[in-house]
Structures are given as C-alpha cells and as structure tokens.
UniProtKB/TrEMBL annotation:
This is Lysine--tRNA ligase. SUPFAM superfamilies: Class II aaRS and biotin synthetases, Nucleic acid-binding proteins. GO terms for molecular function: ATP binding; lysine-tRNA ligase activity; magnesium ion binding; tRNA binding. It is found in: Cytoplasm. It comes from Leucobacter chromiisoli. It is an enzyme of class 6 (ligase). Residues 197-508 form the Aminoacyl-transfer RNA synthetases class-II family profile domain. The lineage of its organism: Bacteria, Bacillati, Actinomycetota, Actinomycetes, Micrococcales. InterPro entries: Aa-tRNA-synt_II (IPR004364), aa-tRNA-synth_II (IPR006195), aa-tRNA-synth_II/BPL/LPL (IPR045864), Lys-tRNA-ligase_II (IPR002313), Lys-tRNA-ligase_II_N (IPR044136), Lys-tRNA-synth_II_C (IPR018149), NA-bd_OB-fold (IPR012340), NA-bd_OB_tRNA (IPR004365).
C-alpha cells in the first residue's frame, strides 16, 4: 500500500460539472440561433485551407508586421487560447497536427451582434470555423482577420490546463486529451505510421507478399504463451485468440508464397509491464532458401530503414541515430554484433556451460544467484541464467545466437552443435525486440517436438503447445528450407522513441 494520500479531486470535479452545465446552456443557445450555420454541431463548414497550409504559404508575412495577403481563407481548428477585450478578441486555433494560428475577431470585421455572440458562446476546446483575410498583426503574428465565424463542434467538457503536464494515467486513459495537449503524443502516432510504411516498403523492395491469417483459431500455437479463450456460438466450439500467426504463414509458404509477411494483432493472456501488453502488434516474415543468418540481415535492414523513416523531416534526416524522448541519442547504424548464448554465459560465470551441462549443475547455479525458474529444464535454466548474467550488459543492438533446443520447439537443429537450435533473439535497449530462426521444416521432427510440448502441457505448463495435426498435414506436403522472424511493433517503436510500451500503443489496455 502506498504511503501517499491520493489527492482530493472533489473540487476539480465540481468545477468541471459546473463548466459542463454552462456549456450545455451555450449548446442550447447555438441550436436556437439558426443564423450561426447549423447550431452547435453543423454537418459541414466551408473550409478552404488547412492551418498548416496557411502557415506554409504565408509565413513570410511575419517578416513585415501589420501587412496583408489580400487573400481570404476559410479554416477550422480547436480553440486553445482566448483573450477577449472590448472591440477585439484574439484566439489561437490548433489543427490536428498541433499547428496553430492566431485569429482576430473585431467589431469592425463581424459586427456588434456577432462579436457579442462570440464572446458569449465560444469556449476553450471548441472547434471553430473562421473566414477572413490572412494578415500579419502589428506584432508580426500570422493571423486571420475574421469576417465570419461559426462553431464547428461545441466542446461540453473543458480542456485540461495546457500549461501543466498531464499525469501518465490521464495520458493513457484519455489519449484524446494527450493528443490535443502534448506534441510528443502526436509525434508518436506519426512515427508509428512512418515506421509501418517503411516496413512495408522494404518488404516490397525485397519481393515479399503481405497476407492476413486468422485471429480466431481452433488450436493455439506458434509460440510458448498462454492464450485467451472464447466460445463461438455459430460453431459451438472453443476458440483461441491467436498468440502468433506462424503456423498459418508456414502453410502459405508450403503453398508457394516463398516470401511472405504479416503485420497484425496478437493476444497473450499474460502479465503486463513496461515491455509487455496482452494485446500487441506483431510482424512475422518467412523467406524460402535462406537461414537464420539471412533473416538477421533482413531484420537489421528493416529496422535501420525504419530509423531513417522516423528521422525524415528532422535534423537527423538520413541518419540511423534516433532521438529518444528523454533526449538520449541511440545509434541503430552499422553492423550489429552477433554473440553466442552459451559462449557469453560461460564467460560471465567463469566456467564452461554447454548443451550437455546437467540440469542439476544449472539448478545449483540458479539457486546460488537467486534465479527462480518455473518447471525447470536445461533450456529454461540456460536462458534465465543468461538473462541474469549477460542481458543487462548489452548496450548496442545485438543478435544473441544459438538457443537450447528445449525452449524452441519450432526451430531447426543447429547444423554443427548438438543440443542447440539455429535461433537468435535481437536485444535493443535491454529488451528482446525480435526473434529469428532457421525454420524446422521436417514434419517427422516437428511431430516429435509437438509431442514433447504436449507432455509439458500435461505436467501443468499452460504455455506449451499442443499437437497441431492440420499444420503437420500441411508440412508433409513439403516446405522449402526457410528463415523466419517475428518482431513486436510496439517494441520497435520503443527502440525508436525510448518510450515505454503504454506510450507507443495509441489506446493500450488498462485496468
């Protein structure tokens, strides 16, 4: 329990309630005044230009105060500042991207009745349409001298204080306020959009085909994770929200789609923290006739191109070095290190750890270090010990190569090291960003792995996979040697922005 007493919000809530009542009265008056262009919520307003376009075209007027363009525009935006005086009122309108422009409503420009109605009916937060000439004010501020105004949408709830930071809870729970108030929130959305476009562009350049696979599945698989369970009334059967698209994308590869990818949602009924969300966006890709080295090359290219896209239009354009929200510069350029899991663990503990190291020896080491492993086997112990000893020391983007076979049931055996599979995890900023494999395409070995997983499930491992006969049937028709990878989109944004996962997801799930 926290030692801090929660702040008393009663006074604030009463103030908001009172403001809402006042605004409801203004809404009613606007709806009664038919001459104001459709009441409080008109169907449309005659916009002829956006605020960013007006600023771009006439920004030069600010160099000559008290000048005029001679052209009239119709613009609309949210009122984020107001100053009402006797015969002249000032307001700042903000567009969706955060661009602002000053508007001036004067007695001479709109008339006595319209000016009085403006003062009475327009509040901070309202969407306002104005038509007038683009000018530069006496102070050199780019402005619109208003000849006509209309409410475009009446805001019944007041805006938060625009000069104070929103709490994290408010930012996450009321993202619409975050987007109105905070530039970084808008930048995050645009960065994500540019990143997604970059990924698709890179895939297109390399001949990949984008597909969509089912989110409702009769059997969960493709990863070790606890699924969400639901029921289909139409089919009268239990269904699972997918934990990964892997098994269906491999079906596509069997069918001849030799370079295939999907960007879509996954759902895992597990914990939520600074790097995990129960619902998250995932990229998976499979490429025939390559291995985990080739798919690592592809992943590095995808991420570095995304960094270039995120930097486009900034002072870092053309650079792979991204700027995090806290001001840190993080370099995603160059060739990334590729290190051995067993080799680096051995160096860290001061003795050789190999795939033949016994469970008893690993468990003793884990006990000495206070590392707890649920349902321990060789692979789980090695991975947990590696995270304990090595992970936090990684600073650059790093591919951690060659994992224990026990923890990677869908991965091909290493071609030269017994007990190891050809798998890597990519670590950036201290967390796992992506994972890649030389894919297991032998249906006989795959069945053996599924049976082993089913045995683990019978022992109580609710993350273990079941035997998927439909997938095995597809694999029996022949899948070419392939490399595959999966990468969390929310985590990619974390690597590009330095933010936590709740900031990179536009509307995260919260209690």
């Amino acid at each position: 329990m926290s030692d801090h007493t929660a702040p008393d919000t009663t006074a604030y809530e009463e103030e908001v309630f009172e403001q809402k009542q006042v605004r409801l009265d203004k809404r009613a008056k606007l709806n009664d005044l038919g001459g104001l262009g459709g009441g409080a919520y008109p169907v449309e307003v005659p916009v002829t230009a956006t605020i960013p376009a007006v600023r771009e075209r006439w920004e030069h007027l600010t160099e000559t105060p008290d000048s005029a363009s001679g052209e009239t525009v119709g613009i609309a935006g949210r009122v984020v500042f107001q100053r009402n005086t006797g015969k002249l009122c000032f307001a700042s309108l903000q567009s969706g991207d955060g661009t602002r422009i000053q508007v001036m409503i004067s007695l001479a420009g709109v008339g006595e009745d319209s000016l009085a109605q403006y003062k009475e009916l327009v509040d901070l937060g309202d969407h306002l349409f104005v038509r007038g000439e683009v000018i530069s004010s006496r102070r050199g501020e780019l402005s619109v001298m208003v000849e006509e105004w209309r409410i475009a949408a009446k805001a019944l709830a007041p805006l938060p204080n625009l000069h104070s930071e929103l709490s994290e809870e408010t930012r996450v729970r009321q993202r619409y306020l975050d987007l109105i108030v905070r530039e970084q929130a808008r930048v995050n959305v645009l960065t994500r959009a540019k990143t997604m476009a970059s990924l698709r562009s890179t895939f297109a350049e390399q001949g990949f085909v984008e597909v969509e696979t089912p989110m409702l599945q009769t059997m969960h698989g493709g990863a070790s994770a606890r699924p969400f369970v639901t029921h289909s009334n139409a089919f009268d059967t239990e269904l699972y929200l997918r934990i990964a698209p892997e098994l269906f994308l491999k079906r596509a590869a069997v069918g001849g789609l030799e370079r295939v990818f999907e960007i879509n949602r996954n759902f895992r009924n597990e914990g939520a923290d600074s790097t995990h969300s129960p619902e998250f966006a995932m990229l998976e890709a499979y490429q025939a006739y390559t291995d985990y080295h080739g798919i690592a090359d592809l992943t590095q290219t995808l991420i570095q191109n995304a960094a270039l896209a995120a930097n486009a239009g900034t002072e870092r354009e053309g650079s792979h070095t991204v700027l995090w929200a806290d001001g840190t510069l993080f370099d995603l350029g160059g060739e990334w290190d590729r290190i051995s899991m067993y080799g680096t663990l051995s160096e860290a503990v001061g003795r050789e750890i190999t795939p033949s190291t016994s469970v008893e020896e690993l468990q003793t080491l884990a006990d000495e270090q206070g590392v707890e492993v649920r349902l321990p086997n060789h692979g789980k112990l090695v991975e947990e010990l590696w995270e304990h000893f090595v992970k936090d020391g990684l600073t650059r983007p790093t591919f951690v190569m060659d994992f224990p076979v026990e923890t990677s049931p869908l991965t091909r055996h290493h071609r030269s090291i017994p007990g190891v599979v050809e798998k890597w995890d990519l670590y950036v900023r201290g967390f796992e960003l992506a994972t890649g494999y030389s894919e297991l395409v032998d249906p006989v070995v795959q069945r053996e792995r599924f049976v082993e997983q089913a045995a683990q499930a019978a022992k109580g491992d609710d993350e273990a996979m079941r035997v998927d006969e439909e997938f095995l049937r597809a694999l029996e028709h022949g899948m070419p040697p392939s490399g595959g990878m999966g990468m969390g989109m929310d985590r990619l944004l974390m690597a590009l922005t330095g933010l936590g996962i709740r900031e990179t997801i536009l509307f995260p799930l919260v209690k």
